[in-house]
Write a structure and sequence with these properties.
heterodimer, A: alpha/beta, N-terminal domain of TfIIb, Rossmann fold, Dimethylsulfoxide Reductase, domain 2, 8-stranded mixed β-sheet, 6-stranded mixed β-sheet, 30 strands, globular, B: mainly alpha, TorD-like, 66% helix, binds iron/sulfur cluster
Chain lengths: 758, 191
């Protein structure tokens, strides 16, 4: 075909009327009458305008991936295809921009790697998969559930492992699905932020953070153990603006992060000694009399006891020896922080993922409190909040079928995002510790875990101690995983069900950092046979009731929009100043805040109603009543290992996309040149990082950005690689977390290993 | 090969690459066996073929050889690209559309083969230069631009069952034949 003809054909193809003319010509000749019946079907009358010359259709979406920024998106669709996404300009927080992960969303929907159909694996881990219909997949699942009930007389053998892979509110329908079947086993707790949540609850009675947008008012910002330049990129503009107005930015982190690179002052304490640094600063402020007397006397309890503790047990020199930060620097930092007004500390989640993490957060809270920075705009001990999460949890709150049996006297459910009320019931679910799931699964003798449902999680790549996890999975009779991509967990599944992306369902999203709410509209049809969690639950319910009437109470509604609508209530309407969810079609809305400062009225939710330097509740729970120093975990191997977040992924999501693979094709272990030299390791060399749990093999990258004696590997899942940092990370718990979230956090940065040339 | 055989072969190829399970694979294979003059390799274990087929074209793991044109035609490998819409446009010119429009990419190999079957039928029914142009365009500017890369990926897959190898070879041969026909009927450029 010559170029001219080809051009002409391309013109015909791209023009609605030319294509129609061509078709009319064919119809006139009668040639189409002979068309054989096949896969393609005669065009529907209403589909005559397949391609519109009109502009893009614009939809509202929300990034639901447990990211600080919980961005609102504008999605541009043409001919039923998502062409590109933008950040919503209506949100002053998202401010029209996304991060590299957000911009890659169309690649996520249209990646050829997506899981497309329900499939059954013949031999777990064999890679031998059969495609089945939804009906068959759901039938197998329903039959198995009924079998468990028959065998055990209850459904405790059915477990749910679900967390934050999708934070859209209707996804609590997965928990709802479990409740609608009966009393089951839940993986309680959170791998994310529990130690800090408990710490803030002991100190202030809740976790409540200032609006991040008010950081522009800060005169002094300490980012402590967090890396917003990678993990909360939208917050950086407020930090920059504050700096432009004269504020100082200090970053405290063992790793010279990208945020640290932008700081006025970077401080590198020894890993896991941040509590000592905060206490050393506090001691210095006592010595200098730089304490906000009004706050500590009027709005707090226990300051005298704290002061006494500091005088007796803490000195600046001790703190200097513990942390490796000079005494002069500790004094300087303390004085600058106490003098600036307002001053704030952003407490990163990384800092509390230590065996002494909760105690470190309490020490930092105390520093912010004693300088009078709590309850102040531009101040605050910033950690997170759940103040905008007052939805109905309509999909989550389901009653068990009549006659269901569970744990007797188990008490009410817990969890960071548990909003289901604390009503007492005769029976309850059985709780396993999400962060030590493998141990709990293997330890269970009565009603053993026979079937596991995994949603919004990838535990085989993200849970600690991969070998033990594998052993635990091997003990389970049936594993069902709902996901979008073939993760390490899907690899260990018997049945995988394809899940919709954010563009293929309705939802509503809020953040735990900012105060915005965003609508998530269905912008395109679900690709292949993907379904949303609530649709899957409805299918299962239908099948269960067919096989055993009354065995499941989940409603049969499959319209994700209906589920979304049912989440709204007057409280949400009032908080955000809307009349209906439809108002969100115009763009995201921000909660109406009396002040941008949390605790602005200094009415704390502690038992005393005040800020508690001395917390009897903490003591009751087995911790020190005061924010005392808790020594770091003893080393179990020569070098420390920390496993922070990468710029290109949210845990195990996003890195598998081709965009990310282009930028970040393989994992590295980052080693200080001095450490590397001692081991004879050159840059780029293949090494093994090992300890008693196992080993990982990867290339070394030498950099002074990490301290000597510390190895850094980002926790990521690379789709074509066997690298899993969790192979050498153990499940040692953090000190806190059980109080509010049902299980202690994980000490994933309190880890040890050795390194050598591979 | 006569036109009817040609159609039967294309239909069998289409059904093979659209199969959802071992039974459908085996049925399509049997139909192909009837349509072609060579003897196809005997298959003892259709389940093994099904597993391999899913690894190549279905999932759930990242596909070895995704059967979607745009993965090969776009500068970056994704489905529902601009080239996917070209298939949709060609279908529209033939008065048909995919019943899975918007859920299964229109440029799935089997949908494109189905369009070829239809286009061949239309060609046989009349003598229209426009239809001939559409045929050469679809083949030269579209199918021949991606199928060879796809075929290479299939052929170089590890532990490829002989059945899938052979079916792919038949598809490759069909494409080569059609391309040869087109070249022989076309005036060379510049005359
Ligand atoms: S990953 Fe975070 S920063 Fe990126 S688009 Fe999503 S919410 Fe926004």
């Amino acid at each position: 075909m010559d170029k001219l003809k080809q051009k002409k054909m391309e013109k015909t193809l791209s023009c609605n009327s030319s294509r129609r003319r061509f078709l009319q010509g064919l119809l006139a000749t009668g040639a189409l009458a002979t068309m054989p019946i096949g896969l393609l079907q005669p065009m529907l009358a209403e589909a005559k305008e397949l391609f519109s010359d009109a502009d893009y259709q614009i939809f509202r979406n929300a990034c639901p991936r447990n990211c600080f920024d919980s961005c609102s998106l504008k999605t541009f669709v043409k001919d039923g295809v998502v062409e590109f996404v933008e950040g919503s300009p209506e949100s002053t927080y998202t401010a029209g921009g996304l991060c590299v992960k957000g911009y890659s969303y169309p690649r996520r929907v249209y990646s050829p790697d997506r899981i497309k159909y329900p499939m059954v694996q013949v031999g777990r881990g064999s890679g031998n998969w059969k495609r089945v219909s939804w009906e068959e997949a759901i039938d197998r699942i329903a039959q198995k559930i009924l079998k468990i009930k028959e065998l055990d007389g209850n459904l405790l053998g059915l477990g749910l492992d679900k967390y934050s892979g999708n934070f859209g509110i209707t996804h609590y329908g997965v928990e709802g699905m479990m409740s609608s079947l009966g009393y089951t086993t839940r993986f309680a707790g959170t791998p994310c932020w529990p130690a800090g949540i408990d710490a803030q609850n002991y100190d202030m009675g809740d976790m409540w953070t200032n609006d991040p947008e008010d950081m522009v008012k800060s005169k002094y910002i300490i980012v402590w153990g967090g890396n917003p330049a990678w993990c909360s990129v939208h917050s950086m503009k407020y930090i920059y603006e504050a700096r432009r107005k004269g504020a100082k930015l200090v970053v405290i982190d063992p790793v010279l992060t990208q945020t640290a690179a932008k700081a006025d002052l970077y401080i590198r304490p020894h890993t896991s000694t941040d509590g000592a640094l905060a206490l050393g600063m506090a001691r210095h402020l006592i010595d200098k009399g730089m304490v906000d007397q009004e706050f500590v006397s009027k709005h707090a309890v226990g300051f005298d006891a704290f002061k006494k503790y500091l005088k007796e047990k803490v000195s600046v020199e001790w703190a200097a020896a513990e942390t490796g930060v000079s005494a002069a620097m500790i004094r300087h930092l303390a004085e600058e922080f106490a003098t600036a007004d307002p001053a704030t500390i952003w407490i990163g989640y990384g800092m509390q993922r230590h065996a002494n993490g909760g105690s470190m957060v309490r020490a930092i809270d105390a520093l912010v409190a004693m300088t009078g920075n709590i309850g102040k705009e531009g101040g605050g001990a910033r950690y997170g909040h759940l103040r905008t999460w007052g939805f109905n949890y309509n999909a989550m709150v389901m009653s068990p079928p009549e006659g269901s049996k569970g744990i007797v006297g188990g008490g009410p459910a817990k969890g960071d995002f548990h909003f289901g009320g604390d009503e007492a019931t005769t029976y309850s679910n059985r709780n396993f510790n999400m962060n030590q799931a493998a141990r709990d699964i293997l330890a269970q003798k009565e009603s053993p875990l026979r079937m596991l449902w995994v949603a919004c999680r990838n535990p085989m790549s993200q849970n600690q101690n991969t070998a033990l996890m594998k052993k635990a999975y091997d003990s389970i009779e049936a594993v069902v995983v709902v996901d979008q991509f073939f993760t390490k967990t899907v690899e260990q599944a018997d049945i995988v069900l394809p899940h919709t992306t954010l563009f293929e369902e309705y939802n509503v999203n809020v953040g735990y950092w900012h105060y915005w709410m965003a609508l998530n509209e269905q912008a395109i049809k679900p690709m292949y046979e993907a379904k949303s969690d609530v649709q899957i639950a409805a299918l299962l319910s239908a099948r269960m009731n067919k096989l055993a009437p009354g065995s499941c109470t989940f409603p049969l509604e499959t319209d994700t929009r209906v589920w979304m609508e049912k989440e709204f209530n007057q409280g949400i309407h009032d908080l955000f100043g809307i009349k209906s969810w439809k108002d969100l079609k115009k763009g995201p809305k921000k909660a109406k805040l009396a002040s941008s400062a949390s605790w602005h009225d200094r009415k704390f939710k502690t038992p005393s109603g005040k800020y508690e330097f001395f917390s009897s509740l903490a003591a009751e729970h087995g911790h020190a009543a005061l924010p005392e120093y808790r020594p770091k975990r003893a080393a179990t191997a020569p070098l420390r290992v920390i496993t922070p977040h990468s710029k290109f992924s949210l845990h195990s999501q996003f890195q598998n996309l081709d965009y990310m693979a282009d930028f970040n094709p393989e994992p590295f272990v980052y080693v200080h040149p001095t450490t590397a030299a001692a081991k004879g390791i050159a840059d780029g060399q293949q090494v093994r990082v090992f300890n008693s749990l196992g080993e990982v093999r990867l290339k070394a990258r030498l950099t002074g950005n990490v301290p000597t004696q510390v190895l850094v590997m980002y926790e990521q899942w690379f789709k074509d690689s066997n690298f899993l940092v969790q192979k050498i990370i153990d499940d040692t718990p953090a000190d806190m977390g059980a109080y509010k979230t049902g299980a202690p956090g994980t000490a994933v940065h309190d880890q040890f290993a050795d390194i050598e040339k591979a | 090969m006569n036109d009817t055989q040609d159609q039967q072969q294309l239909q069998a190829l289409r059904d093979f690459f659209f199969a959802q399970n071992a039974a459908q694979l085996s049925d399509a294979y049997a139909a192909l066996d009837e349509a072609v003059s060579i003897d196809l390799p005997k298959v003892d274990d259709w389940e093994a073929v099904e597993f391999a087929f899913n690894r190549l074209f279905v999932g759930p793991k990242a596909l070895i050889a995704p059967p979607f044109a745009s993965v090969y035609l776009e500068p970056e490998p994704q489905v529902m690209g601009k080239s996917t819409l070209i298939s949709r446009q060609i279908f529209e010119m033939l008065g048909v559309q995919s019943p899975w429009q918007g859920t299964l990419p229109d440029d799935h190999l089997s949908l494109e083969l189905d369009a070829c079957i239809r286009l061949s039928a239309v060609r046989q029914a009349g003598d229209s230069p426009e239809v001939e142009d559409l045929w050469s365009y679809f083949l030269q500017a579209h199918l021949d631009q991606w199928l060879p890369s796809w075929i290479n990926r299939v052929r170089s897959a590890e532990q490829l069952p002989p059945a899938i190898h052979t079916v792919t070879d038949i598809l490759a041969a069909w494409l080569a034949d059609e391309m040869r026909d087109l070249k022989s009927t076309e005036p060379s450029i510049g005359l």
